[in-house]
Amino acid sequence: MTRRDIVTAIPTSFHPDGTLDAEGSRSIFRYVAQSGNEGAFVLGTTGEFPAIDDAEFETLVAAALDELGGAMRVIVHVGQPSAFEAVRRVRIAKQLGATEFAALTPYYLAVTEDAVFDYFSEVSEAIGDGTLFVYVYPKRSGVEVSPELLTRLATLPNVIGAKVSELSLDELAAYRAAVPDGFVLYTGADRELVAAGEAGAQGVVSGVSSVLPGPFRALAQAADSGDPAAIEQAQTAVDDVVSVIGGDMARMKAAYRSMGIADGVCRMALVEPDASAIAEIERVLAAYGS
């Protein structure tokens, strides 16, 4: 059977004054733990990691491992502009018991492929016996990862896969053709669980599934059944949810507020949904919520 992991990218909750809402974040973790999804992606883009300091990182990783660890895999994102900073976060997370990690390529300044390899070599060495996903997101990081570079990164002893965001299915297929068998590819495109699988991916890292996991689970089950009508129906539901919530953390948090899970907002400069958007969020919650 084709592997179709659903790994939930989890938002971080903040108070209106910008301070960390630790209890609200714990509530989100508890909610996600009940989703039935295979894993959690903590403190990635959806978690607003660029706005998190080391003390907050420690608080959130501890809470995630506590609330999610018994229910699903927990992949802790440690990517930073420099290997020095990323390694520091690896050490914090390892002390708390984390064993699975992801790291965005170094970002902001232009780097060579050799510099990217050196960065991941240092992060890999710090992780030791744990596992590491390369996080490829050139539209945010400014750093391209060629199939040849990803193949080179796959030679590092604990690099087991890559999370790929905002690249085409053709680019995903090019990665698949280049990397070794057994190397895991996750797409960051919420709606492409099935399509990305056909291009060689083993699953999706989905922020939208942190709010409404049901349509994603239904799509995976439909794809496993091979029933075209069931797949089409399930894909339509996923497309509807993604069109309303998308990769928009402010909308995700509006949904949490509506569901009574957490009252938090975003810390980063994201636009709050207006009344019409709230109405659409309420619609999909009613249609697809449990």
Give the SSE map.
Layout: E1 5-10, H1 22-33, E2 39-42, H2 54-68, E3 73-77, H3 83-96, E4 100-104, H4 113-127, E5 131-136, H5 138-141, H6 147-153, E6 159-164, H7 169-178, E7 184-187, H8 193-198, E8 203-206, H9 214-225, H10 228-245, H11 249-259, H12 275-288
Parallel strand pairs: 1-2, 1-8, 2-3, 3-4, 4-5, 5-6, 6-7, 7-8
What does this protein look like?
The chain has 290 residues and is of the alpha/beta class. It has a single domain, classed as Aldolase class I (TIM Barrel, Alpha-Beta Barrel). It contains 12 helices and 8 strands. Strand 2, helix 2 and strand 3 form a beta-alpha-beta unit. Helix 6 crosses helix 7 and helix 10 (228-245) runs antiparallel to helix 12. The model has no long low-confidence stretch (mean pLDDT 97).
What's the short version?
48% of the residues lie in helices and 14% in strands. The chain is α/β, with parallel strands linked by helices and 290 residues long.
Using brief descriptors, characterize the structure shown:
single chain; 290 residues; alpha/beta; TIM Barrel; 8 strands; globular; DapA-like; Aldolase_TIM; lyase; Dihydrodipicolinate synthase family protein
Radius of gyration: 18 Å
What's the shape? globular
Query: Could you say what the CATH architecture is?
Result: Alpha-Beta Barrel
What does the average pLDDT come to?
97
Low-confidence stretches: none
Q: Give the class from helix and strand content and strand pairing.
A: alpha/beta
Termini Cα gap: 27 Å
Keywords: Lyase
Family: Belongs to the DapA family.
Pfam family, one: DHDPS
InterPro entries: Aldolase_TIM, DapA-like
